[in-house]
From TrEMBL:
PANTHER family: ATP-DEPENDENT RNA HELICASE RHLE-RELATED, CRISPR-ASSOCIATED NUCLEASE_HELICASE CAS3-RELATED. GO terms for biological process: defense response to virus. Gene3D superfamilies: 1.10.3210.30, P-loop containing nucleotide triphosphate hydrolases. The keyword Cell inner membrane does not apply. It comes from Siphonobacter curvatus. PROSITE patterns: HD_CAS3, HELICASE_ATP_BIND_1, HELICASE_CTER. The keyword Zinc-finger does not apply. Keywords: Antiviral defense, ATP-binding, Endonuclease, Helicase, Hydrolase, Metal-binding, Nuclease, Nucleotide-binding. GO terms for molecular function: ATP binding; endonuclease activity; hydrolase activity; metal ion binding; nucleic acid binding; RNA helicase activity. InterPro entries: Cas3-like_dom, CRISPR-assoc_Cas3_HD, CRISPR-assoc_Cas3_HD_sf, DEAD/DEAH_box_helicase_dom, DEAD_box_RNA_helicase, Helicase_ATP-bd, Helicase_C-like, Helicase_Cas3_CRISPR-ass_core. Pfam families: Cas3-like_C_2 (PF22590), DEAD (PF00270). This is CRISPR-associated helicase/endonuclease Cas3.
Length: 775
């Protein structure tokens, strides 16, 4: 039966009534209650879900403005790009709620589309006469009287009827307050904002919850997936398989499955830490209930691999991932589906959107996907809402620099203290002083260590120290390849990795190179070759950089590596004889560093690492007893180095303060600058790929075009610009859009050599003809 208020639309394409949209938002509201039960554990001063429902019912009532309705129906109108949420505000004053609740709802409804700063400058000051002469002359040309605009155009009675009949929300007669009052009454509170103050999360989480309901409701999402027993059944199957072979999960894995609350696990590489983490997660779900899961890794190669692994074991629809190279990965992934270009783009966008929203319960991410919310970037309120009652699993947390580790400590401290987050940290090689920092951050925790008997089974590596540089001893590696050995070579720089690969690839049956100086397409291809090589044994030689250190499930017979600190080397060793089926495999470390290595690893740490290995060789003929690794790690890392400690303290102290003072409905521009300046990369286009780049742009294949670029460091970028020899230069390409206007796409072209097998080679000039000089 048609209701009078059915004439009020909320959306135009496709047309959707206001009631349908509110119903969609309330569906999400119901799903949020099931997925975020731990909101009830927070010290909020009101019934969160009841008040959020009221905010949802009221948030779009301003769409009942007559000119906004004409706009949606494509009729002539005088809407003039006003904001509908400003016309929702007066209704809230009529709610039968105490004043502080009305105030909360009013604040979140006003800000649910635009940052308050933007709302004030562009949509209040520019449109409406001020009641208090706050921003110009009353009656100034072009500005309208807000109260008159409301009374004349907003279909108040229909909207009151909608709220009453459809949602049993009674709105009493109200006075029409100028929207400037929302901002003016909020501004004095900003200086007092502090996460430790009562009421802070009352506002922040209500805002985050409303934004999620509005966004997901607008997308007409019908389901937010939850983890159930089904997603954990693979553990039981694995255990049964082991038991049929007279084996079982390791003791530390079973112990993790019995821990409730925060946990730090120390166990060797290749000892089933992933299963340990899911066993722990299962226990948390049983005890605390649903919460979103974040599996946090440092490198994209390991994130891609973990995403595929967990998707296979828990169900692909339950696992997503987020990192800076996600588009490149998905672009290649959808190549197998025979999609047209437009279909492919739609699929990539849809999957990325799904990963970004609350739809996917498990996300494999870099720490920056969580850290950005502490810097107050746009949407931080939604990000913090998603973390309520969530589960963080950190794998090899030691791999980060001092400044990133400081940020992670703040993240853990903040989320454990304020948002009921539970944390599991897994490591094989964490120095004790770093562990103390973590202990301070997460508070109470259980510690689980692999047993001595297990460590005794992990005597799988025999360290050898070789004189000289790795690059000067390639015959040693050639001999191993000739003997049919499966060889891993790890260099500290891309340049050395390229050189070594170039020299050795013809000596191996099949070889792969993996580092950070490939474009997206080639990097993904190399990762797939590596993955396939592990399945069928076709790869005899892998040459890589630090990119292969963490969580890649690969198994080689021997490693030759340039010198590095002990924790990095132990991770590299973990890719050799991983399954302990080869006795004691040699791990060969060259003593001499390259001159440029000092910019990557402090000489002091590398020298102490060599000393530690000399001691191991003297005591045990090089056999590494992994039960004693901690003492060697602490020998190399007795404490923070002075410079690192200063860097750590600076970041930790500043972010601790700023994170506590984030202001809901205001994005932090300073925080945004601080966050993005830590990413040391600018994408450039190798000149050899310019024709392919332009061809993709002509087809509006923007993702494909972007995947041809290579990321280089900012200081390298600045150096190339300074050289002023046209090796790096800015170019642009213009595309005619459907409406006849031109879209100009600017990009940087680099004339250095690029090879699909080697990546970007800084020392070689591409041979090419600059046709631009003829134009």
């Amino acid at each position: 039966m048609t209701k009078p208020y059915d004439e009020i639309l909320a959306k135009s394409d496709p047309q959707l009534t206001l009631q349908q949209h509110v119903d969609d938002c309330l569906l999400i509201w119901g799903l949020l209650q099931k997925n975020f039960p731990q909101i009830s554990r927070l010290s909020l001063s009101y019934d969160f879900w009841r008040v959020l429902r009221l905010a949802i019912v009221c948030h779009d009532l301003g769409k009942g403005h007559a000119d906004f309705q004409k706009l949606l129906q494509n009729h002539p109108n005088r809407w003039r790009k006003q904001r509908h949420e400003l016309f929702s505000i007066p209704f809230i004053e009529g709610l039968q709620e105490e004043k502080r609740i009305r105030e909360l709802i009013r604040l979140v409804v006003a800000g649910h589309h635009k940052d308050y700063d933007q709302l004030w400058k562009r949509y209040i000051c520019d449109f409406y006469q001020s009641e208090n002469d706050m921003f110009g002359i009353p009656g100034a040309e072009g500005r309208v009287d807000y109260e008159e605009e409301f009374r004349k155009n907003v279909k108040t009675q229909l909207l009151l009827q909608l709220a009453e009949e459809a949602y049993h929300v009674t709105i009493r007669p109200f006075t029409i307050e100028h929207p400037e009052q929302v901002i003016l009454t909020y501004q004095p509170q900003i200086g007092k904002m502090n996460a430790s103050n009562p009421g802070y999360f009352d506002l922040l989480l209500l805002f985050g919850g409303l934004k999620h309901c509005d966004h997901l409701g607008s997308a007409r999402i019908q389901e937010l997936l939850q983890l159930s027993e089904t997603q954990f059944q693979f553990l039981e199957r694995k255990r049964t398989d082991l038991q049929t072979k007279k084996k079982d999960f390791y003791d530390h894995q079973l112990a993790c499955g019995n821990v409730t609350g925060n946990l730090i696990l120390t166990s060797p590489t290749g000892s089933g830490k992933t299963e340990s983490s899911i066993l722990w997660l299962h226990q948390q779900m049983k005890h605390f209930g649903q919460g979103r899961v974040f599996y946090i890794l440092p490198f994209t190669a390991s994130i891609n691999a973990m995403y595929e692994r967990l998707g296979k074991e828990m169900g692909p629809e339950y696992v997503g991932m987020l990192h800076g190279k996600l588009s490149d990965y998905l672009y290649d992934y959808f190549d197998d589906f025979q999609y047209s270009l437009s279909q492919k783009k739609e699929q990539i966008d849809a999957l990325k959107d799904k990963f970004k929203t609350l739809v996917t319960p498990v996300k494999v991410v870099t720490p920056f996907q969580l850290l950005k919310h502490l810097f107050g970037l746009k949407g931080f309120e939604q990000g913090l809402f998603e973390m309520v009652g969530s589960y963080f699993i950190f794998d090899e947390i030691h791999a980060y620099s001092a400044d990133v580790f400081a940020q992670i400590k703040v993240l853990l401290q903040y989320t454990v203290k304020h948002l009921q987050v539970r944390v599991m940290v897994m490591t094989a090689t964490m120095p004790t002083f770093l562990k103390k920092e973590l202990e301070e951050a997460i508070g109470e925790f259980t510690e689980v260590k692999a047993s001595e008997s297990l460590y005794s089974q992990f005597v799988r590596h025999r360290v050898e120290l070789q004189e000289g540089l790795l690059t000067e001893n390639l015959d040693l590696i050639r001999n191993a390849l000739k003997a049919g050995t499966k060889v891993l070579v790890v260099c500290n720089t891309v340049k050395n990795a390229q050189s070594v690969f170039n020299e050795l690839r013809r000596d191996a049956c099949n070889a792969v190179l993996l580092h950070s100086a490939f474009n997206g397409i080639d990097r993904t291809r190399h990762e797939l070759e590596l993955k396939q090589g592990e399945k069928d044994g076709s790869i005899q030689l892998l040459v890589g950089t630090q990119a292969i250190e963490v969580s890649l499930d690969i198994d080689y017979d021997i490693i030759y590596t340039e010198p590095a600190p002990i924790d990095a080397l132990i991770q590299r060793f973990g890719r050799v004889n991983r399954k302990r089926e080869k006795g004691q495999s040699p791990v060969v470390v060259f003593r001499t560093s390259n001159a440029t290595d000092q910019y990557i690893y402090p000489n002091e740490l590398v020298n102490r690492t060599i000393q530690a290995f000399e001691e191991i060789i003297a005591e045990t003929d090089g056999i590494i007893d992994e039960a004693r690794l901690q003492q060697y790690i602490d020998f190399v890392y007795p404490d923070w180095q002075l410079k690192q400690k200063e860097q750590f303290d600076l970041i930790y102290n500043s972010l601790s303060v700023s994170a506590e003072r984030l202001v809901p409905m205001y994005r932090s521009k300073l925080g945004e600058e601080d966050f993005y300046k830590q990413f040391d990369g600018i994408k450039v286009l190798p000149v050899i790929l310019k024709d392919a780049f332009v061809e993709r742009l002509k087809q509006f294949d923007f993702i494909g075009a972007e995947s041809l670029k290579v990321q280089i460091r900012k200081n390298k970028f600045a150096q190339l610009l300074r050289e002023n020899d046209q090796n790096l230069r800015s170019e642009s390409y213009a595309i005619e859009k459907k409406d006849g206007t031109l879209l100009e796409i600017k990009y940087f072209v680099l004339t250095k050599k690029y090879d699909a097998e080697l990546g970007l080679c800084y020392d070689q000039q591409e041979e090419w003809i600059d046709t631009s000089i003829w134009l």
